Amino acid sequence: MILMTLKTTLKTYPPSVPGVTADRHQGRLWLALLVWLALPELVQAQFIFTTNSGAITITGYSGGPDVAVPATINGYPVTSIGDNAFDNDFGVTNAIIPDGVTNLGNLAFAFCTSLTSMDIPDGLTNIGRQALDACTSLTNINVLTRPIAVWVEFCSTCHSDHA
């Protein structure tokens, strides 16, 4: 459907710049299409990860303030946020962890002092030691609906009005 639309556009869109042919327009449209198709890979490029037995563990991050961990990367399910994956990332303000993630590692978001909101999936079964330690701006955690294993000091330096 997209390619048909592009071809139709090429047929009806005359070049308006002297010396620019329809072939150059077609090349630009193909480039735009390739970039659009590559966007999922570009988004995934902001996550550093390892693959083990067909599952992904997020081990680092280099993106913007709103973290939306993908449910899959390269066709493999994301099942774990590893130890120290986001620690000391002062720019992260919001984090959404997808269904399918079962582990939030030790110090996973520690010292993310700008983190204000986090959505945690229902399938999470383990929250590691000090996973949210020193997240002093954290005011909203969308909490699980069932019990899980949580280290006592998962947020030891969070303020009582923030945890």
Secondary structure layout plus pairing:
Elements: H1 2-12, H2 22-44, E1 47-52, E2 55-61, E3 66-68, E4 72-73, E5 76-81, E6 94-96, E7 103-104, E8 117-119, E9 126-127, E10 140-142, E11 149-150
Parallel strand pairs: 2-5, 3-6, 5-7, 6-8, 7-9, 8-10, 9-11
Antiparallel strand pairs: 1-2, 4-5
Description:
Strand 1 and strand 2 form a beta hairpin. Strands 1, 2, 4, 5, 7, 9 and 11 form a 7-stranded mixed sheet that branches. Strands 3-6-8-10 form a 4-stranded parallel sheet, with no helix packed on it. It has helices spanning 2-12, 22-44; strands at 47-52, 55-61, 66-68, 72-73, 76-81, 94-96, 103-104, 117-119, 126-127, 140-142, 149-150. 21% of the residues lie in helices and 24% in strands. The longest helix is centred in the first third of the chain and has 23 residues, at 22-44. The chain folds into 2 domains: 2-42, no CATH class; 46-150, Leucine-rich repeat, LRR (right-handed beta-alpha superhelix), CATH 3.80.10.10. The model is unreliable at 1-15 and 38-43 (pLDDT under 50).
Q: State the low-pLDDT regions, or none.
A: 1-15, 38-43
Q: What is the third-level CATH name, the topology of the largest domain?
A: Leucine-rich repeat, LRR (right-handed beta-alpha superhelix)
Secondary structure category: alpha/beta
Taking the alpha carbons of the first and last residues, their distance comes to 49 Å
What does the main sheet amount to? 7 strands, mixed
Radius of gyration: 21 Å
How many domains? The number is: 2
Which CATH class of the largest domain is shown? Alpha Beta
Roughly what fraction of the amino acids lie in strands?
A: 15-25%
Give the proportion of residues in helices. 10-25%
Characterize the overall form. globular
